[in-house]
Amino acid sequence: RRNSTLPFPGGLPLRISYGPLSSGEGLVYAVRDPVEVKGEDGEIKVVDEGVEDKRLLVIEGEFSAVLRACQREGNTLSAILRTTFDHGNIEPLTKHNRIKATGAHINFVGHITEHELHCLLTSIDVWNGFANRILWAAVRRTRQVPFPQPLSEEVVCKLSERLGAVLISRVEPGARGSASRGKAQVDTYLRGIDRR
């Protein structure tokens, strides 16, 4: 059974999508802002409530599909992922069905074999900054388990709490660079969600 949320520090569950990532516009839609239109009577109406929680974790079982999608003519997925990484405000300039997302925080976990990565990661992906925005990890299993058992909800919660504590400790005041500003931004954001 796949969960659609994950326990997260602060008590707010983290929304999970199991992909696949196929277009930049689809990703923006997943974390979109409310859409308001001005009616003929001049009154502004909300036609789409948008998404309240802009945090999203995408579990991409076939990262090779993402790299192939990025290579398709006219696909904006690579540009949207890079923009999201840089500042979280996305507003594709499209003529129809304009959507935007502000303050989006998107992460993804992708799985790919070494051979597929070498074949599909283009020099453009390396030079345009797509590849350096990804934390790459080479993972090898130590043994084969014929019938692996999923982690219990209790274990997942404990791991999530430990990871959250580590992440928060990295943005405590006094840390190097803009880390203290980052914690303040996270705190402000989480307080804003609690009030909604």
Short description:
Helices cover 37% and strands 14% of the residues. With 196 residues, it is α/β, with parallel strands linked by helices.
| Cα end-to-end separation | 30 Å
Average pLDDT for all residues: 81
| Helix and strand sequence | EEHEEEHHEHHHH
Helicity, as a percent range: 25-40%
Say what oligomer this is. Answer: single chain
Which strands sit side by side, in order, in the main sheet?
Answer: 1-2-5-6
Shape: globular
- Radius of gyration (Å): 19 Å
What is the number of strand segments?
6
Tally of individual helices: 7
pLDDT under 50 segments (min length 5)? 174-180
What does this structure look like?
It is a single chain. The protein is of the alpha/beta class and 196 residues long. The protein is 37% helix and 14% strand. The protein has helices spanning 24-30, 63-71, 77-86, 114-120, 123-127, 153-169, 179-195, and strands spanning 5-6, 14-17, 35-38, 44-48, 55-60, 105-110. A four-stranded mixed β-sheet has the order 1-2-5-6. It has a two-stranded antiparallel sheet with strand order 3-4. A hairpin with a 5-residue loop joins strand 3 and strand 4. The longest helix has 17 residues, at 153-169. Residues 174-180 have low confidence and may be disordered.
